[in-house]
Predict the 3D structure of the following.
Amino acid sequence: MARLRMGESQTPPIEQAPTLAELHSLYTNNIERIRHGTTGGAAKAQFHYAKVSPDAFEELVDYLEHREFPSLRATATSSWILGQARLSMGQSLRVGKALCYIVQKRRRGLGVGLRKIVRSALLPGVGIVGAGLLGGFALNYAPISVASLFIQRATLVFVPLLGFLTCVIRWHALISQRSDAALSAVRTLQKCAIPESLPCLCEAFFDPYLSKAAEKALLSTLPQLTSERYERLDPNLTQNLCDLLLDCTPWHPPLVFALVDALEKVGTKDAIRPLQRVLAQIDKSTFPQAEGLWALAGRALEALRERAITEEERVIDTQEPEYR
């Protein structure tokens, strides 16, 4: 622990954000760290627990927020850097909002624009095919020989195939970069642990590629919920938590406990029936700590019913003056 703190304290501050070329280089050299959310050790990590200057922060967040045609590699690397750095609460909120948008774009099939597809995947393949066909056409004016005829026919056969393979390979690279950007965003959301990101993380849990990272992020974020935040959260959060609870029961016991505890704190009356359904699904003989879950769910149901009564009384109080 002492070595870790020493490494953190010795990490130089980020005074200037890496350039686009440097971000691409960092992506190539740290691809496994970005995908697994690791820093490589405090002594080796370049950005671990580093303080970010305001200018560098603005430049890094700009890759997440306002780029019309952002580089996916730069996006993945920027979120990885911000996930390692030391951020204030205000900075974490801003980063979290930008990262949620990145994750939601992947969930909706976006994130690789048509212009990027044409520029990065189609144009190189079309260029190879065009150059090959021009070369084959030029051979018509060359002296006729067995070699020239063989080269011409081979060109007409293999160059289109090479162009097609180029398009497929570069398209697959774009999809992989989009997935890396989304995964890096989820891992950074885990470190930010802001309750505002919960609807996004609930959606990400249903993405097979993001599911494990989203579960870890949920387990670190759900305990941050408090009953004082009840009226400031997304009105659809209860539905998101209930959908996730019904889906992950009984295969993810730690997440089930965290979700029930969260519903006790911020759930609405709409969570009563889903919670009762979950209790009906729990097999006491196979589910770990089933008795503890039943006790926790009982407290949650009681809190939800009391909250429902309070809300109904509040609605009645607001309607009474109209009838008077």
Q: What stands out?
A: The chain is about 70% helix and 0% strand. Confidence is low (pLDDT under 50) at residues 1-9.
